[in-house]
Every structure is written in C-alpha cells, then in structure tokens.
Amino acid sequence: MSANVPTTSAVDSPRDLLAADRRAFIGLWSTGALTTGPVFGYGTRPWLGALWGLAFGTLLATGGALWWRYSVARLLLAARGRLPWRIMHFLNDAHVHRGVLRRVGTVYQFRHLTLQRYLAHPEHPSGERAAGAQRSP
C-alpha cells in the first residue's frame, strides 16, 4: 500500500517533495479515518467508531507516506543536538549562501568529495578528530 507521491520530475526542490509527501500523509490519514470511523461507529458507540477510524487512518498513512518517519527522526536528532531544528532552512542556506552543497533534482549533495569524506569519518589518518565529532561511549 503506497501513496501516490509525486516523482522527482513533478517537484522542483527537496522542500516541495517533503510538502507533497506531507500532503499525501494527511490525505491518507483523513481518508482512512473518515471512511472507517463512521462505518464501525454506526449503530454502536460513536466514540468507538472515532477511535477505530483514527487508528485505521494512522495505519494507512504510516504505511503509505514517509513524511512521518522524517518528522520523527528530525525531532529526535534535533532534541539530541545532532541536527539543526530547522534542517530544511539549514540545507538551503548551505546550498544557496555557502556553496557547500549542490542540489541534484530533489536531493542535496556535497560539492566536494573530500569534505564529505572528512565529515563522514570521526577519526582521520593524522589522528585528529573532525570538528564537532564526539567519541562514542
């Protein structure tokens, strides 16, 4: 079961792709909730139908759209200080104003492979640690 999320040719930027997937999530959730809730609540307890509708809508949306996974991961990483709170703003700034990232379709890539490798490895051949790298416990 998958949402009809636009492909990269239908959107212009990573922000547009994220917004399209968020709309797909909300559409799937509301469709699931509004179609199953009244069916199961009719003739029984309305609150039970509403609860069933919310549960089915959530199940349908989480299986079809990836926006919720992005949102949970972003919130957890930002709360731990491992990611900026406004990640899309950060990435756009790194692309437009700093020139560190390039945009290829709907994804960002490092302009320089050397920089990508440097940031990806906390330990370097010289024994120095990358700036901001933390030792794992």
Give an overview in words.
There is one protein chain. It contains 5 helices and 2 strands; from the N terminus they run H-H-H-H-E-E-H. Helices cover 57% and strands 6% of the residues. It has 2 domains: 70 residues, no CATH class; 46 residues, no CATH class. The longest helix has 28 residues. The mean pLDDT is 76. The protein is mainly alpha-helical and 137 residues long. It has a two-stranded antiparallel sheet. The two termini are 40 Å apart.
List keywords for this structure.
137 residues, mainly alpha, two-stranded antiparallel ribbon, 5 helices, transmembrane helix, membrane
Strand order of the largest sheet: 1-2
Considering DSSP H and I runs of 4 or more, what fraction of the residues is helical? Answer: 55-70%
Shape descriptor:
elongated
Percent range for β-strand residues: 5-15%
Distance between the termini: 40 Å
- Gyration radius from CA atoms, angstroms: 21 Å
Uncertain spans, ≥5 residues at pLDDT below 50?
A: none
Determine the mean pLDDT: 76
Number of individual domains: 2
Give the count of helical stretches.
5
Number of strands: 2
Indicate the structural class.
Answer: mainly alpha
Run of helices and strands: HHHHEEH
Described by strand count, sense and barrel closure, the largest sheet is:
2 strands, antiparallel
Quick summary:
By secondary structure, the chain is mainly alpha-helical. The protein has helices at 14-41, 46-64, 67-79, 87-96, 113-120, and strands at residues 101-104, 107-110.
Please specify the SSE layout and strand pairing.
Blueprint: H1 14-41, H2 46-64, H3 67-79, H4 87-96, E1 101-104, E2 107-110, H5 113-120
Antiparallel strand pairs: 1-2
